[in-house]
């Protein structure tokens, strides 16, 4: 359990760094507001939690048994008259609660997180233009008539400092600068940016006419985005709704959710024969081979899911051919280990050794 917890924390750290970097990149470009980072990151982690747990438990079993092979403890196990298949029952007992958690996350929590994330993104799209401005970056309005620049925010974004606004109206270009400002909402629901102690320059294009006006207070109405609500995706629908739905996309998504815990069980059982290493050789080749099988398994599942959505495969067939193929692969690997045959042919090992001094 300690090994699986440590591996899960490592995977979680990698995913958090990758997802956080992507979200921060969107914030820097003005696609997302600053205060949305934590919420979107949390929903993303919840959606990826079943796959992270699946990978963590697979690597935990694989690395533990690989270490036992390397330390010749498995030799003692075999000498005592015990076969490799007798590892199946204790490992299934160990992974049962984790697979149960993965099933609950995949069938119920993951669609809930997807629906909440989509709903939150829709709310962000309806927020006013100032909500997506990053301090120190220029931001163009949705209609292209204004360009904003704000040096810094205070008090949760309702007070701003060093403001620059360029607008175009009636064939004239206006530039407004102010030392500070604030935001407020009128009784009718309109949002305004109040600028204090600043100047307004009005320029007529292709002329030298420039008029300057100093002001104590200047109010600018901030446009609120109007977006038509998007239709709910299959990923955001509940499992019960998918079972009642007749669309191919719904059936494909249902097969995918069921496939996550099933693939976890199959891959953990595959980790038993894949963990064998030759004590005279390094164990990195077997680990790379096992991870490659895990990646291929999940990618083939994704391909079959897309084929179901496109109608190339019947929904009654689903993803079961993929599971059956990897079950047969597991039987083949157990058969080779029964007769003490290497899982990776010797010619591949010789080629791998040639690449090292």
UniProtKB/TrEMBL annotation:
The keyword 4Fe-4S does not apply. It is a multi-pass membrane protein. One of its GO terms (cellular component) is ATP-binding cassette (ABC) transporter complex. It comes from the Bacteria. The chain crosses the membrane at residues 43-66, 87-113, 258-277, 289-307, 313-334. Keywords: Cell inner membrane, Cell membrane, Membrane, Transmembrane, Transmembrane helix, Transport. It is found in: Cell inner membrane. It holds the Pfam family LptF_LptG. InterPro entries: LptF, LptG/LptF_permease. One of its GO terms (biological process) is transmembrane transport. PANTHER family: LIPOPOLYSACCHARIDE EXPORT SYSTEM PERMEASE PROTEIN LPTF (PTHR33529:SF7), SLR0882 PROTEIN-RELATED (PTHR33529). This is Lipopolysaccharide export system permease protein LptF. It comes from Methylophilus rhizosphaerae.
């Amino acid at each position: 359990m300690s090994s699986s917890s440590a591996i899960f924390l490592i995977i979680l750290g990698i995913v958090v760094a990758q997802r956080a970097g992507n979200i921060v990149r969107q914030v820097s470009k003005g696609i997302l507001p600053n205060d949305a980072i934590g919420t979107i990151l949390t929903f993303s982690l919840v959606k990826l939690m079943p796959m992270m747990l699946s990978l963590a438990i697979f690597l935990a079993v694989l690395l533990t048994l690989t270490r036992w092979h390397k330390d010749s403890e498995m030799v003692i196990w075999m000498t005592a008259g015990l076969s490799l298949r007798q590892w199946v029952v204790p490992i299934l007992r160990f992974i049962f609660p984790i697979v149960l958690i993965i099933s609950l996350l995949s069938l119920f929590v993951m669609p809930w997180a997807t629906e909440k994330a989509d709903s939150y993104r829709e709310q962000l799209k309806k927020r006013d233009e100032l909500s997506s401005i990053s301090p120190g970056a220029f931001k163009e309005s949705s209609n292209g008539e204004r360009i904003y620049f704000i040096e810094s925010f205070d008090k949760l974004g309702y007070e701003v400092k060093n403001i620059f606004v360029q607008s175009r109206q009636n064939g004239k270009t206006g530039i407004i600068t102010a030392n500070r400002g604030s935001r407020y909402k009128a009784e009718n629901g309109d949002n305004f940016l109040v600028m204090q102690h600043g100047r307004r320059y009005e320029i007529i294009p292709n002329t030298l006419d420039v008029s300057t006006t100093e002001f104590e207070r200047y109010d600018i109405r901030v446009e609120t985005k109007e977006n038509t609500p998007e239709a709910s995706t299959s990923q955001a629908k509940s499992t019960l709704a998918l079972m009642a739905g007749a669309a191919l996309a719904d059936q494909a998504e249902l097969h995918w959710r069921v496939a996550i815990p099933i693939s976890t069980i199959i891959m953990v059982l595959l980790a038993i024969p894949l963990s064998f290493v030759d004590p005279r050789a390094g164990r990195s080749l077997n680990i790379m081979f096992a991870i490659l099988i895990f990646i291929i398994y999940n990618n083939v599942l994704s391909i079959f899911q897309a084929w179901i959505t496109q109608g190339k495969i019947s929904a009654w067939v689903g993803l079961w051919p993929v599971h059956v193929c990897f079950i047969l692969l597991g039987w083949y690997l157990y058969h080779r280990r029964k007769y003490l045959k290497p899982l990776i042919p010797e010619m591949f090992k010789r080629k791998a050794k040639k690449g090292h001094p």
